[in-house]
Fold C1q domain-containing protein.
Amino acid sequence: MIVVTDAWIFNGPIQHLLATVFVAMFIGISYLFVKKVQDLEIQLVVLKEKNSVLKTESENLKRKVELLEISYKQFVDRSEENKIEDAKQDTPKVAFYANTVTDHVNLGVHRTLVFGNVITNIGNCYHNSTGSFVPKVSGIYIVNVQILCSPGYELRTELVVEGAVKGTHYIGDSTHYSNGGGMAVVHMDAGDCVWVRVATTDGENDIAWESSFSGFLLYSDS
Ligand SMILES: *[C@@H]1O[C@H](CO)[C@@H](O)[C@H](O)[C@H]1NC(C)=O
């Protein structure tokens, strides 16, 4: 028979057992707590390292962006300068305009119309003593011929480039002044000779002073 006494309750095997269980639980919980703190410390160190790597990377990126901005600005500046230089170099200027045919009455077939009165002669390629335009630059040229003929006459004229006919014009009216001519877009080599001549005529003609020969370089070959 078990006799329950005060001593048994307060100082008995149950108390020992409970105390042992409490101590064990305390040690277990402490161990887990310390383990957890250690894990967190390790994680904190790892995060710190990652943070410093990211900081370095972001600083490097910032420096790279700054360098890119500088070289982009230099590139833009240089290309603007180049554009201006190219424009200066690539535009040879050729333009001429003359009127008043020096000998203007009864010109025969293949006689050259010499436009003596020079109004414009940029590049000095038009020669008013011979009536010929001799470009110093190869390229595409716009040339215009206008012939005003006195009443009662009829003729045809031609634009000639190095002996080859590049345009023909008819002028004639029995009772009124008549106007003829035309524009041509032609390739010319430097040194080519370009002039206007009579192609056909009924023998008599009278070319009015308002008649003109003009042209300009549209763009050069190079
Ligand atoms: C050519 O032009 C010059 C200068 O303008 C002028 O003195 C001369 O008389 C002109 N020649 C002819 C043939 O018209």
About this structure: Residues 102, 116, 118, 128-129 surround 2-acetamido-2-deoxy-beta-D-glucopyranose (CB under 6 Å). The first strand starts at residue 95 and ends at 101. The mean pLDDT is 92. The chain has two domains: 6-88, 95-220.
